Amino acid sequence: MSLTKAEENLMKHLWKLEKSFFKDLKDQYPDPKPATTTINTLLKRLIDKGYVNYKLFGNSREYYPLISKNEYFSKHMSGLIKNYFNNSIEQFGSFFTNEVDISDKDLKKLKDIVDKKLKDKSDD
Questions:
Q1: DSSP code of 55?
Q2: What is the pLDDT tens value at each position of the chain, 124 positions in all?
């Protein structure tokens, strides 16, 4: 399930903090801060979607993510590849390397990452 930009933004703050009471979470936003009701609505949606949960401490809730940033990003990227590149990593790689302005230095770094991964897999 995908997140809206506002939900994703709140998750970024929560991933950074790891766990947070409402006030600390709201403090993460730059001025002008969103309304309290807006943040509460986003938290409710994220709880309903299964991305966030909380522990009660008296009348206060300490919120925490149920999915890591890496897990979310991995699922998000898989969805992009499936929906926009016919589930083909080759089409994605071709688009990424041909249509995105990448320096020779960064292309070399990507090649090194792929080469290392291939070596690691062949060692298994």
A1: E
A2: 689 999 999 999 999 999 999 999 999 999 999 999 999 999 999 999 999 999 999 999 999 999 999 999 999 899 889 999 999 999 998 998 888 898 999 999 989 999 999 988 888 7
Is 75 inside a domain boundary? no
Predicted structure pTM score: 0.79
DSSP 5-45: HHHHHHHHHHHHHSSEEHHHHHHTSPSSPPPHHHHHHHHHH
- One domain for residues 61 and 102: no
Structure tokens at 115: 């080469």
* Partner residues linked to 20 by β-bridges: 63
100 located within any domain = yes
Containing 104, the helix (H) or strand (E) segment is helix 104-123
Domain of residue 104: give its range: 89-124
Residue 54 and residue 61 in contact, taking contact as beta carbons nearer than 8 Å = yes
- Angle at CA of residue 69, ends 64 and 70, nearest 5°: 140
Question: First-to-last CA distance in the chain?
Answer: 33
